[in-house]
UniProtKB/TrEMBL annotation:
Key words, A-Z: ATP-binding, Disulfide bond, Glycoprotein, Kinase, Nucleotide-binding, Serine/threonine-protein kinase, Signal, Transferase
Pfam families referenced in this protein's UniProt entry, alphabetically: DUF3403, PK_Tyr_Ser-Thr
Protein name: non-specific serine/threonine protein kinase
Gene Ontology MF term list: ATP binding; protein serine/threonine kinase activity
Membrane-crossing segments per the record: none
Chain intervals for the UniProt region annotation (Disordered): 339-371
Signal peptide as annotated in the record: none
All residue ranges annotated as the Protein kinase domain in the record: 54-339
Length: 371
């Protein structure tokens, strides 16, 4: 809470105490990983039966670490099975560490891990099934975007903020997601958002607030400039990604690849200009029509711009974000946003390539992607 008070003081022009240098650090070493796996162990025969032997009709998608299949257990429960690709370099020890790490995350706005399977050469994670797919499918597809009116979108923004706050502050481990984006937000039957895909995540311990890496991973368009350019990441780099998400949810357009009359090549720049000119409502997706709550929409855009400010110390924490979303008080003026969209020739959803060797403490929760 002290950190939040200091941010508010700085934002409104009052006293601000700088970040103590001894709180900064490089990426910490992973734990020993000797803890017992505290999740149900599924037999391979059960998984094969539930997915109809990994039928193509059951395939939901495929990520960098392997395919995801829909399954139905004997009791009728629907599941999503992430099958680690045979070519993956992840070994048994790393896989077990992954299961341990994911199993400790329990929040209604995170995809729930139900169990795992290790048998022969097969390594799989079993998740709750998300019937409404991922958020990008609904907001970027013109034929689907009308399914999400403004109240539904605002509900999703609040849910993502709560899930991210849990990762940063309320979970046993302080976790930096590092790849927060619309395709990693899954939606349940009631359109509740669930953060997924922790493949790039890192854990912080003690008073650590920042770290750096030689291997920059994530998705261009969502990456904070200090991370994309210098490999420095913190909870504030996740806050930046959240700000991009908010603007995309309001606008219905992708940040990266956005082109407005040849003036801007990203949504952030366009939003910043409209905000400064008092024309923020022009950012709102036309499909939202009369469903919008104008003060709520304008406040969301303003908060999104606060989250994408160039200087990480200027960005609010997720505690402050939720406070601002839930109140009607005045907001500080946002400073200039940070722009980093990567190589424009790359696909907007492509993850960045490695810029060096990975450090030993990468929390490889790569398969929390249960679509």
């Amino acid at each position: 809470m002290i950190q939040e008070m200091l941010w508010l003081s700085k934002s409104y022009g009052y006293l601000f105490l700088g970040t103590p240098r001894n709180a900064l650090g490089h990426e910490p070493e992973n734990g020993s990983g000797n803890e017992d796996l505290e999740l149900p162990l599924f037999g391979l025969s059960t998984i094969l039966k539930s997915t109809n032997n990994f039928s193509m009709d059951n395939k939901l998608g495929e990520g960098g670490y392997g395919p995801v299949y829909k399954g139905v257990l004997e009791d009728g429960q629907e599941i999503a099975v992430k099958r680690l690709a045979k070519k993956s370099t992840q070994g048994l020890h790393e896989f077990k560490n992954e299961v341990i790490s994911i199993s400790k995350l329990q929040h209604r706005n995170l995809v729930k891990l139900l169990g795992y399977c290790i048998e022969g050469t097969e390594k799989m994670l079993i998740y709750e099934y998300m019937p409404n797919k991922s958020l990008d499918y609904l907001i970027f597809d013109k034929t689907q975007s009308e399914l999400l009116d403004w109240p539904a979108r605002y509900h999703i923004i609040i849910g993502i903020a709560r899930g991210l706050l849990y990762l940063h502050q309320d979970s046993r481990l302080r976790i930096i997601h590092r790849d927060l984006k619309v395709s990693n937000i899954l939606l349940d039957t009631d359109m509740n958002p669930k953060i997924s895909d922790f493949g790039m995540a890192r854990t912080f311990g003690g008073n650590q607030i920042e770290a750096n890496t030689n291997r920059v991973v994530g998705t261009y368009g969502y990456m904070a400039p200090e991370y994309a350019g210098d490999g420095i990441f913190s909870i504030k780099s996740d806050v930046y990604s959240f700000g991009v998400l908010v603007l995309e949810i309001v606008c219905g357009e992708k940040n990266r690849g956005f082109d407005h009359k040849k003036i801007w090549n990203n949504l952030i720049g366009h939003a910043w200009r409209l905000h400064n000119e008092g024309r923020s409502l022009q950012l709102v997706a036309k499909c939202l029509g009369d469903s919008i709550n104008v003060p709520q929409v304008l406040r969301s855009i303003h908060i999104g711009l606060l989250c994408v400010q160039r200087d990480p110390e200027d960005r609010p924490t997720m505690t402050i974000v939720l406070l601002m979303l839930g109140t009607e008080g005045p907001l500080p003026l946002p400073n200039e946003p940070g722009f980093y969209v990567g190589n424009p020739k790359q696909d907007a959803t492509q993850s960045s390539s490695s810029h060096g060797t990975s450090s030993n403490n990468e929390l490889s929760i790569s398969i929390l992607s249960a679509r």
